[in-house]
Specification:
It is built from 1 helix and no strands. It has one helix at residues 11-53. The longest helix has 43 residues, at 11-53. The termini are far apart. 0% of the residues are buried.
């Protein structure tokens, strides 16, 4: 898949900006995923702790 890029930009600047944008989106996705997964992890940890007590 080829991305259309404006010709008036220097390619280095464009790709650096594009990389930063992708990394920012990746960080946001990981942040959202951690919010989704942390309660599940805490729940599993609690269940393991309860089983350990038995």
């Amino acid at each position: 898949m080829t991305l259309m890029r404006p010709m008036y930009f220097a390619p280095e600047i464009y790709y650096a900006f594009h990389g930063k944008l992708l990394s920012l989106l990746g960080l946001l996705a990981l942040w959202g995923l951690s919010f989704a997964l942390v309660p599940i992890g805490v729940y599993v940890y609690f269940i393991r702790w309860v089983i350990g007590l038995l």
